Amino acid sequence: MGVEVRVEGLAKSFGTQPVWQGVTLTLPAGEISVLLGPSGTGKSVFLKTLVGLLRPDRGAIWVGERDLTRLRERELYEVRKLFGVLFQDGALFGSMNIYDNVAFPLREHTRKPEREIRGIVAEKLDMVGLAGAEGKLPGEISGGMRKRAGLARALVLEPQIVLFDEPDSGLDPVRTAYLNQLIVDLNQRTGATFLIVTHDINTARTVPDNIGLIYHGHLAMFGPREMLLSSTEPVVRQFLNAQRIGPIGMAEEKDADELRAEADAGAEPPPLPPIPLQLRPTDGGVRRAERPPGQWCAANYVVPPEGSFQQ
Ligand SMILES: Nc1ncnc2c1ncn2[C@@H]1O[C@H](COP(=O)(O)OP(=O)(O)OP(=O)(O)O)[C@@H](O)[C@H]1O
């Protein structure tokens, strides 16, 4: 089963350059959360901080009873084993075949005999649909296959938390749809806590249980999918609906002149699109954290956009 990750008042800067501050959120155990934000707002830095590759300036990251920010390097090494990370390009070793890439964490971090390793690698490659590709080098397979190989490697130590850094970058829409289905199926099968950084709005709208948005050095909003997809908060609304009208400009924030010109022209954001149903596991079963469609809206007296939650 996955574990809850509780982030409190996290801040990170490089030199005098702040990336974000005051980031507080909870990744519920076993649920899928998505983190969005304009380029350069520090989403990758957030993932690296969560897994202990970067030290925050302030704040706490609670994984169970332990605050990762206070651990010594040796303890951190242990806690890191709870995490599986899928880096943007799969981060495979180019000179190793897929089998050796996936086996690598097992050989590094465990004393399992090769016979057992073989069984685990075969199982994980099968889970991501790559059975038969063991002997191929990363350079000999497509980008989508490299992502899936990276995913098999991220899962090999049975992590309780899996972080995905733009798993869909560079994939065509059909491959992205397959990968999203694979992510939902793997979450169902493993029960691990997932956090996905993505720029793909369709992924953000259909895959997660929770959505967060980083903007302008802070977490603009984090909460249940329905809360963000029905939000009229200008930044959230603009970003989640990929619109030009709103406070976000080409270089992050629009300046006062741009906003005034927009207001003078009477530019209004279009109505919110319907909230789609969540992506279900392949077997059509109910997701681990699934709530009845519209439940959050009803409980919070929010009228969802017309046409929401239809097949
Ligand atoms: N090791 C580092 N040293 C100094 N600055 C860094 C370092 N890592 C990241 N940054 C800076 O931190 C900021 C956030 O970078 P990050 O890659 O996390 O953004 P992002 O939101 O993931 O962007 P994108 O969506 O384009 O991938 C950028 O300005 C980047 O240059």
From TrEMBL:
Residue stretches making up the ABC transporter domain: 5-241
UniProt keyword Ligase, yes or no: no
SMART domains: AAA
PROSITE patterns: ABC_TRANSPORTER_1 (PS00211), ABC_TRANSPORTER_2 (PS50893)
Classification via SUPFAM superfamilies: P-loop containing nucleoside triphosphate hydrolases
Claim: ATP-binding is one of the keywords in the record: yes
Protein name (database record): ABC transporter domain-containing protein
Organism: Dactylosporangium darangshiense
